Amino acid sequence: MPSLFIKNKKVRKVEVVVSVKTVLQVVLVVLIVSIGISAIKQSSHALTLIFVALFLAIGLNAPVHWLAEKLPGKKRGNRTLATSLSFVVILLIFAGFAASIVPPLVKQTGNFIDDVPHLVEDVRDQNSGVGKFIRQHNLEAQVDKFSDQLASRLSNISNSLVGTFSKITSSIFSMVSVLVLVFMMLIEGPRWLDVFKRFLPKHKREHAEVIANDMYKVIKGYVDIQILLAAMAAIFVFVPLVILDVSYPVALMVVVFICGLIPLVGHTIGAILVSLIALTTSPVAALIIFIYYVTYQQIENYVLQPRLQANATNMSPLLVFSSVIIGVSFNGLLGGLVAIPIAGCIRILVLDYVNRRNLLEPAEVITDTK
User: Fold this and answer.
1) Could you tell me the residue range of the domain that residue 247 belongs to?
2) d(Cα 61, Cα 191) in Å, to the nearest integer?
3) Cα separation of 256 and 275, whole Å?
4) Overall pTM > 0.70
């Protein structure tokens, strides 16, 4: 009968020797990674601005290049002049938008502040229409509670104004920073590309240029289609705004256009803003505008945008729609804005890797041999 145990079995000892140099290298790598992650977190806002500027610069490169080639005489091909002219047009558009919406907004805010004492008197006057309505529906307790809350809010209005002013100042600074970065990227972009090419071996430059060109086509196609969809939405919403005599239709059209640049969720923001402004005209107008806008939003989000972006970026509508959902879940509006071009660029890199490694077998054609 074989024994279950083996006696006198030699036990081998394995010793792992780790040098001090290896330990120091591991500690140094961990320290560098930790510092890098901390630096990225601290500069996340600045990196976001740079990324947005890079995205806009790629989208504006085509019209700037076209304008540079159309300049007369010795100025032909001057990217600095073409970029300057393009930015003058952009600034004029922003100035027109501000001129169309800021003065009326300030005027209406002032009128509202002037009318507040009269509104309070109407509420307190039991013989007025508002007073009778309050007494008829037993709303005295709710009105008193609202008055107390309003007084509390007004007492803290200075702090609110300071916070609001700080946010507006920060937003203006971020916008100016992005515009300056875009301006510099458009001018210096070709020179930087030449520098990057020199880091690559000569036998890899042609392949890298093909990949970069395919990515550029994806981003350019995405920007072109998104601008087209935003312009369509602005025109479609402008018509009922004029028919219903809503205040500031041109300014609201610009708001719709800006919101339309954000995929999937942009029109939700636009619908809320436009409906609130239309509410100052009449509740019926606000309801009509809201229903009209939401209907168009559903058609664009689920029919127009996936198909048009799929054709422009050479992706399937399912991949387009899925990428937007993932982008919004990761980083809100910014994630939704850049999700489609990022997904298109990743697709190009993956397909290039698969094709170069021959990882994907050709599809077999099944024939009936019977």
Assistant:
1) 201-357
2) 14
3) 11
4) no
